[in-house]
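Record pair follows.
FIRST:
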Amino acid sequence: MTATVVAHRPRALIDVNVVLDVLQRREPHFYDSACVMGAAETGRCRGLVAAHSVTTLFYLLARHDSPGAARVHLTSLLQYLDVAPVDGGVVQRSLALPYADLEDAVQMMAAASSGADFVVTRNTGDFAAGPLPAVNPAEFMALLDWPLED
């Protein structure tokens, strides 16, 4: 990816793996992912999460902790992450993408349909054939010109 700095406040759909890195403090990814979530929380970027990801996150968080804790986490996240709708049109466009994983295709098309500039994910290769650039958390922070500290 070329080192281009984004001059406006970008819109980024944040993949489930990045959210889980933060909520479950998964190393070695926690810091970079937390920077992305912090950028969304402080308004440095406009963060989005796909509607179907909310249910996936609930399931995984409830299994890891409890349904009550999952609700608390999601309620907090939705204070600063907008929900990118997933409807029949998004699903139809997702099926047309040459992705091995339909869930990734739905993420990409939810992002594109919501006017996102990027998909932020740790699995950038899975999103290569989509209409938007997929960047990892460190790349996204560099695009924001918000240097990560060592």
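SECOND:
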Amino acid sequence: MIASVCLALALYHEARGESLQAQLMVAKVIVNRVESKRWPSTLCDVVMEDRQFSFVKKGNVPPTKDQEAWNKSKNLAEEILKYPSILPYSDADHYHTVNVRPIWRRKLYRIVRIDQHVFYSYKKPETVQISLRPKIRPNQKEKR
């Protein structure tokens, strides 16, 4: 299968009714898995891996019934592959819907909830160390 089709299938089956931000986060999880040594190294292998995404059953994927949503998923997948910088910065490598409470979530760090998905990571989130206050104010001279 072509990478864009695999990503589009995941977006369609996992997040078609969600906001763009949630769809991008689902894609980010898949991309993060491709970049990790814990999972396979291609988009299709990650998406089609047994027991990783609920829509994949023994290597089979249900048909796409909503043509408009399928076209949107395909277009978004192609855009992500062409411009990966549109994906949010995140270490998320797991997610689930708010309707379930999988046991594996206890071993991970919760990152964020977006729409009906909760995202997690093996990596502990780091606090951003930044100050909006300048060290030297424009009308002050630097102390020496």
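COMMENT: The beta strands are 94-97, 109-114, 117-121.
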